[in-house]
Design a protein that fits this description.
- Chains A, B: This is Coenzyme F420-dependent N5 N10-methylene tetrahydromethanopterin reductase-like protein.
- The structure is a homodimer.
- By secondary structure, the first copy, chain A, is α/β, with parallel strands linked by helices.
- The first copy, chain A, is built from 15 helices and 13 strands.
- Chain A folds into two domains: 365 residues, Luciferase-like domain (TIM Barrel, Alpha-Beta Barrel), CATH 3.20.20; 62 residues, no CATH class.
- The first copy, chain A, is globular and about 75 Å long.
- The mean pLDDT of chain A is 92.
- The interface between A and B is large, with 72 and 72 residues.
Chain lengths: 450, 450
């Protein structure tokens, strides 16, 4: 089959752009409005998106959260929200962010296996380490763990969760009413894990789910992040300003995955793209300018501060002057570097910088017609820059509708995107293999030897 | 308004009775069958139940879990399941069990506030401490914490969660598109908690939910458990074999609540009742005998072992002889005592004991006509034994249908039960007050003093 573009949609009810909530189209209470999220899910499914994607944090992001914008100070916990959307949809996948830093693997494994069962195989877990001092202070700490320590814990957390997801082999449950035998004890397995951070006996008390494992998603860009992603992720969310850095990332991750003994085709690279789509270039530009006009100075400054690690004090700086240097961060290192790069390359003032990143916080922002957006996606897709994209509509629901009504048909005309869902599960639609249960694999070896 | 009976329904998809899954009516895969849970929720709502209630554990209950029965070895995480049921229902409440022992209060607060928002005010949290060594071994421990330590942690956990639920005052969000002011910073508050077990700064990143606080439910029967319940719970689930012990418990809890400065009417006592309902006594008895016939000896023994703290070894004992003494437990102390009481009072053999408790594990089991069941409920309700009941249909869906079709109409005829939901939220249907935000109360005092 011809390779086609995979698409995720970032649809936070509060809007992606930090001033989205002020747009007349966007419900001001979108972040905590369930009916609005339902509408977004139905639109994403109409557009044949692979998945609805939600970020998450473990602290109210007041002044300078990475997500930025007061409209996102309070929202839903993503797994709880997504679960409620599953019975209202049939094919759309749901990729929820959950922390490896402040949750226990047994709880993580349970909730994602449950979501996968409830959705009949449409769950994905975006594995993150939780940065920010604010989150640390909500979990019994005075300050966050160092970057490298968070990644070590993350790697082990994922390892334990995957072991737990293999607790029951696919044919472990016999459920024979006549004999009263419910399961085959030989096909139930402990995790028997004892590592640096976790000691988990298992087995899980949720059965193996329709996808075997919910799809593992990751977004780390730093050296630690790339290592984790190449070792464990099946979908990698990434942020690039240029095709050449996207290509460098793409090739590096595929090579690392191969070095880990993985099939590089089963590691999908999906950069973020934030599109302002118009029927004409002028209309697209008007949409950009309009949303920009809603940004308050204080919110722009808070956003910059959050994205650069919470250590950049812009008090007293001329907003129409250049960005001052910032101290190194133990927070999101790759994001900090990216923001700096955008400022330097474009010669942006502080104000121009926050206006430009207000939509997508470092992801590629494009203002143009459907044809121009499709051109960009096609170029990256066909030149080792991307296997697909995570679309970040700047405000909702209109920018999502624009993408579905204008860009999707253009991609379909070019044969670059599906005209119907290929499969039932998220894994099937993404073209990812069903992961064999580690214990079942052992049985097969025994059978083959007989 | 006339006081009426409140009703919760325990509807585990795997069935309440340990052999329920072998009954021809019950889907053998009920525990992980979402469509089946949906059917149960719709039936409970048709029956005007206040809430759908689910227990939970943090280990696969193989040989002797407290819940007993292999059909429940793997199921759904309750909050994830309930969230998916909320958009399919309109009035039914959802009371999910979650552990104070192996979760962090910030995460607990988030998921229940999210469920309350998504369901438009129909969430309840059954606060438990997680006993069993098996669970401890899934959370980095070699053995469980002592009983008293678990309860101290539980009390503080609830305290922190309630503080977090008050992070945003009800009118904190202005969402003024014109000015760009999203919230009133004076109406957002940290938890600023530092205690024996938890240090949590807050605020929560979920807004205050429709009920203010999801309804707090508790089920502890021991001295520690009663203390926690009287201090924090609004609904108390309890297990009694006789009206007189139910009355002792009822009066004790109401007195303790009053001593804590609480209105005793806002602490609802709801014993568990497991009904086998027939159109005749004979039909009811046939239903009981049929389900009993499905119990495997090994499952009965495992159930007894689980309920008595996992320390009772029945190997080599005559199943038609008396129950041997068991060592004290650090597990569920009150349940251990109750099981012993049932054996002693009835002069049960080991076999008779596990057959009787197979339905309800220590809760009141009644085999009779709708009139006889209604008589029992009425007697307890009108004589300080209960404010309502948690109904544990022994197998599903039939025993739930029987209750809805036979007992509910009888209670309605007697004026003891609603004929339509009174309110929109679980709190309103239970007749519980909306909890004022602790910070808003302070504003009001200031206003009153002006």
């Amino acid at each position: 089959m011809t390779r086609q573009i995979k698409l995720g949609a970032f649809l936070p009810g509060g809007g992606q752009h930090i001033a989205a909530w002020r747009h007349p189209d966007q419900p001001a209470d979108g972040a905590t409005n369930f009916e609005f999220h339902k509408q977004l899910a139905l639109t994403a499914e109409r557009g044949l998106f692979d998945a609805y994607f939600l970020a998450d944090g473990l602290a109210a992001a007041f002044s300078g959260g990475v997500e930025g914008g007061n409209a996102k100070v309070a929202g839903f916990e993503p797994v709880t929200l997504f679960s409620a959307l599953t019975p209202l949809t049939t094919h759309l996948g749901f990729i929820a962010t959950a922390s490896t830093t402040y949750e226990e693997p047994y709880n993580t494994a349970r909730k994602f296996a449950s979501l996968d069962l409830i959705s009949d195989g449409r769950a994905g877990w975006n594995v993150v380490t939780t940065a920010t001092e604010a989150a640390a202070r909500n979990f019994n700490l005075d300050q966050q763990l160092p970057h490298a320590a968070r990644y070590r814990r993350a790697q082990e957390h994922v390892e334990v969760v995957k072991k737990l997801w293999d607790s029951f082999e696919d044919d472990a449950f016999l459920r024979d009413k006549d004999s009263g035998v419910f399961f085959d004890t030989a096909k139930v397995h402990g995790a028997d894990h004892a590592g640096e951070h976790f000691k988990v006996a298992g087995p899980l008390n949720v059965s193996r789910s329709p996808q075997g494992h919910p799809v593992i998603v990751q977004a780390g860009q730093s050296e630690d992040g790339r290592g984790l992603a190449a070792a464990t992720a099946e979908v990698i969310f990434t942020a690039h300003q240029h095709l050449d850095t996207a290509q460098e990332f793409y090739r590096d991750i595929k090579a690392r995955a191969a070095a880990n003994g993985r099939n590089p085709d089963h590691v999908l690279i999906m950069p973020g793209v934030s599109p302002f789509v118009g029927r004409t270039e002028e209309e697209a530009r008007e949409k950009y300018d309009r949303l920009t006009s809603y940004i308050l100075e204080e919110d722009g400054i808070a956003l910059l501060n959050g994205l650069t690690g919470g250590t950049l004090d812009l008090t007293g700086h001329d907003l129409d002057g250049p960005l001052p240097p910032a101290p190194p961060t133990e927070g999101n290192k790759s994001r900090q570097a990216l923001i700096r790069q955008i400022a330097d390359e474009n010669g942006f003032t502080i104000r121009q910088l926050y206006q430009w990143i207000a939509s997508a916080r470092g992801h590629f922002t494009i203002v143009g017609t459907a044809g121009q957006v499709a051109d960009m996606l096609q170029e990256w897709f066909e030149n080792e820059g991307a296997d697909g994209f995570n679309i970040l509509p700047p405000w909702l629901p209109t920018a999502l509708d624009d993408f579905v009504d204008l860009v999707i048909p253009e991609l379909q005309r070019r044969g670059l995107f599906r005209t119907a869902y290929e499969g039932r599960t998220l894994r099937e639609n993404l073209g990812l293999p069903f992961p064999a249960n580690r214990h079942a694999a052992r049985h097969r070896v025994v059978e083959a030897a007989e």
